[in-house]
Amino acid sequence: MAITNIELVDYAKAQIGRPYWFGTYGQKASTSLLTSKKKQYPSYYTAADFPAQAKAGQKVHDCGGLIKGALMTNADPNGIPKYSAKYDVGSDTMLQQATEKGSIKTLPEIAGVLVFKTGHVGIYEGNGYVIEARGHKYGVIRSKLSDMPWTHWGKHK
Question: CA 71, 17, 97 angle in degrees (round to 5)?
């Protein structure tokens, strides 16, 4: 089932403060997930705090995983994602697949529009703010649109 732009923003807001794990889309952090991801992406899992995050059992996402997590849980902020290959694309592909898109200079004031720079995606909240899974040092954060050199916007298909 499709979700609305507002449901996407609400899902993302509920994830603020949660950890960033590369290659994830809203699964609960666990020792087994950490072991799997460390094996899959060893260069992304070198920080010492991952085991403590795994024990905390919070939902974890990477940047594209924030959008995938909303889609795969039907926007349930605490839901368990049901994997769907149709949503499993990277941020650059999300921009290519966008139904409408443009330069960041033409960003419409619409909550839930995606914002992009090469290799990264965020969710425009509105009023100049973005929710993004910025990286392991940051986790999922709310930031000013102007804090990141976004280049494009797009409406998710």
Answer: 30
- Pairing, β 152-155 against β 114-117: antiparallel
Q: pLDDT tier at 1 (50, 70, 90 boundaries)?
A: low
- CA dist 48 and 28 (Å) reads 18
pLDDT at 102 over 90: yes
pLDDT at site 118: 95
Written as six digits, the tokens of 19 are 């950890």
H/E segment holding residue 132: strand 129-135
Q: Please, what is the Cα angle at 107 between 104 and 99, to 5 degrees?
A: 95
pLDDT of 2: 84
| Nearest one of 101, 110, 125 to 12, comparing CA atoms | 125
Is residue 12 helix, strand or coil? helix
- Asked whether the predicted pLDDT for residue 133 surpasses 70, the reply is yes
pTM of the model: 0.95
What DSSP string runs through 43-98? GG---TTHHHHHHHT-EEE-HHHHHHHHHHTTT-TTPPP---GGG---HHHHHHH-
